[in-house]
Structures are given as C-alpha cells and as structure tokens.
Amino acid sequence: MCTSVQPIEWTNDIKNQNYDGIVLVTQSHETLPAELECLKAPLQDYSSVDRGLGEEVVILKVTDLPGNRLVFASTGPVNRDYDDVRRFSDAAVNGIKRALKAGMQRPLLVCPPHKDYKESSVVAALGALHALYMPLEVREAHISSSKYKVCALGLWAAEEAEGQRLVKLADALESGRVACRDIGGSDPERMAAPLVAEYVQKIFTDTCVTVEVVSDLKVLEKEYPCLAAVNRCANSVPRHQARVIKLQYCGDGPIEKTLLLVGKGITYDTGGADIKAGGVMAGMHRDKCGAAAVAGFFQILAKLKPKHLKVIGSMAMVRNSVGADCYVADELVVSRAHRRVRVGNTDAEGRMVMVDLLCEMKEKAVTETSPQLFTIATLTGHAIRAMGPNYSIIMDNGPAHRNNNAAQWQKAGEMLGDVFEVSTIRREDYEFHKGKSEYEDILQCNNLPSSATPRGHQTPSAFLIMTSGLDKHGVDSVKPLPYSHIDIAGSSGPFPGVPTGAPIVAMAAHYILSQEKPRL
User: Fold this and answer.
1) Are 383 and 485 within one domain?
2) Full-prediction pTM beyond 0.90?
3) Structurally, how many domains does the chain consist of?
4) pLDDT tens-digit profile of 107-129?
5) Selected catalytic residue, list 86, 351, 362, 455
6) Is 276 marked active-site?
7) Which strands form 8-11's sheet, in the order they lie side by side?
8) 128 and 207: one domain?
C-alpha cells in the first residue's frame, strides 16, 4: 500500500529541460509577469488566428520550451462579484488532463500570482494534483508498475522561498487529500471498517499521531449504544464489523486550541430496514467521507506539525446492513447521555453512529484548553438540494455562533477554494426531534428522506446536540462548549468520480496555515 503523494518539485527556470512540457494557468497571457515574457509571443501569435484563445485548453508547439510544448489553460475572466479562486484549480485540472493526453510525464505547472487571489498558485497546484490522483485499488493492482500518473509534477515559482513554500504546502495538503480519497472513495469491501483501521494504523506508524482502535463488541455496546444498534446486523459478518478509530495529535508548546472531531464512516449504506430502493443505493460506499476527512486532516497535521494545537479525532466506521438482525424503526435506544431515542428511519444512521462519540468528546472537552467540537458527515441529501453540489455546509450552536466560527471557516475556505455555505440551527429543529410520546425523549428522524423534509439538513444538528447532552453546554450554561456540524454531502465529490477531500483544506487554512501571517 502506498499513500505517498505524486512527486512534486519546483523550479524558477521556465526553460528547465528536466520537464517535457509547460502547463500555463492564468487569466490572460497579456498580463504575464516579466519572468514569463517568453510565453507571451507564441500565445499572441496563436490568438491572431483564433479569437477563441482562452475559452478552451489549447496546446502549442514552441521550440525553445521544455518538450517543445505549451498547454494554455485559461481561467477565463475572473469576476470578483461572484467568481472565486476555484477558477484556478478548475483550469489546472483541465490543463493537466490535456498534458496527460499529450503524453507528458514531467509537466511544469506555471501559475503566476494573481493580485486578488494571493494563494492562486497553491490552489492551481492542488487542482493539478487532484487530476493526478490514482485510486488506491488501481495502485494496488499494479504492484510492479508506477503508482503515479506522471514521473514528477514541476511547480514554477519566481523565488526560492516561494517555491519551497509552494511544494511544502502542496505536498502536505495533498497527502491529507490522498488519505481522505483512499478511505472515502474505495469500494465497500476494500475499505470495510477493519481494513480502514489497518490503513489508518499503517499511515500513522512512526508519526506524531497516535491511533487507538476499538473493536470489542461489548465495549461498543456499552460505550456507544447508538452506534452498536446500527452495527448489529453487520456484526454477524466478521469483515464488516464496526471499528471506532481514535486519533490524537498534540503540537509543541503550550496548547492554545483543542479541536475535537467526529467523522461519519458508513462503509456502505443500504438504508437498513428502510432500504434505499429504486436504484439510489449505488454510490453509498462514499458515506464514509466524513471519517475519511478526519483521517486526512490528521495526515496534514503529521506533515506540518503545527505548534500550540491539540486535535482529538474519532472515526465511526460502521456498515448499515440489512437483514434479520438489523435495527428497525420504532426501536428505543438509550444513548450514552442517557437520552431515550425512538428510531424513526434506519436510513438516518449517520447521526446514530456519531452521537455517542460526540458525547464522549463533550466529556473530554470540559477539561481541554479552548475546545471546539465538530461532526463531519455526508449526512443529508437535503444539503445538496438546499445549496447545490460542491458546497460544504457549516452550522454553529450558540457558543460557536458567538465566536463567529462558521464565518471564520467560510473565510478560510475561500482562500484555498474549499468553499462553505453557512446555515443556522433554529428552534424548529429542536422541536422536530422532541419525543412525540412519553416512551421517548427524542425522535431520531421522521419517515421521509431528508430531501423531502423541510429543514432537512439543519434538524440533524439539533438531534446531535440534544442526544449527546451538548444542550446542557449552551451559552447560558456554566461550561459553554462551541460545537459545529459540517455536512459535506454536496462537497465530498461526484459519483462516479474522485472524492474532493473536503473540508480538510479549509480546516488546514483555518487552524494551521493562519499561523503564516500575513499571507493567510
């Protein structure tokens, strides 16, 4: 198994013959800096016969450039009213795909700095690396051949310090996205819960990240009863048995901030007894992208080793299987926080597997320095219906809202193109989950899909707060605990296709790269 990133290097020599072609990503060839003047003339010549230059990716023969090839992938006009830095990653993806089609094995990506987007070069590099990702199953199926699509990706930078920073950040961020894609995108057998645990243990061997795996059924039933209910059917198949994977990172120096992360890791979601019918089950191996993001963020931590930061993570790896022993609607389950939960829909399993882990994080948070709790999940179809694909949604509880947490995440995500929409938890969301009879304290879900339920992406956050006991740590409590729920159902990536790695780049921008002042 190989988790290393596509080899990356930098150069300030635009004519470096170690490369076999240039991929230029910029808004217009007319605004190239003096260091890239040699690229302007061939593009001007081309534009004299094709006014469509900049509307699609083109490849030119330029005899004095590496490999005699120049791929021009324009971002197009960047309208600051509504465009964002993703224009650069989109262009880089298209440019690298064209370079691969042309047979390049050592492309040099050139993305000169943009005055309005200070991190456009990093974003372009991440776009190129996204296009160069090779799925885990493909890498493992070709043991004797290359595990990379190209021999090396070159990144151009005018100055040495800039080039070294560009390579360091691109390598670290992509290493996290590779781990996230490997776990989140691999099929439900290759990344069944026990194999996810093996993968995570292996990538963090001899690193500053510690790993603990909980597999004993009696422990799961006692400590995480809601998770154990979902696991009940899958537990009869050894290769599908649940795992709770706990990770911890503690940076050097006095701790100034503690992050406590819980990720949804449904290795396959059949819907359970409320089965996903009508052909909508395909793609449900991607329901583990929340837990995959937790692992990916720890991979970035292991690479960049930020000081003064402590991070505790839990990955809830469970298969929502259907069969004689599956949990069903109408069951009563008592959560770790001693709340009686009435199951309303077994396809709302994501909140079930996370809620007791969130309760455990709440218990830890009261003794930690400046704690911030999160749940990260591909939780609802309503998230896609409400905001469209490509956008993560973040929702704050009262203490987090007072700290402007969601707004800060949104701002950090804008820097590197890992974008967020902010949503709000309202009183109706709490009312929705109140028990409907004296049998239960809390109703887990209604009987409709989230996409057919008003406020379908907001209400689960209220369930998680109520069922974990976080409602006792609001703004008016003795010990307020900031908590945010992040729904990545839309942003985790298309199927078929490659997972994006959202939201770990935004997390890194906010909690790690913000130390690099004044750039971020």
Assistant:
1) yes
2) yes
3) 2
4) 999 999 999 999 999 999 999 99
5) 351
6) yes
7) 8-11, 153-156, 107-110, 21-26, 69-74, 58-61
8) no
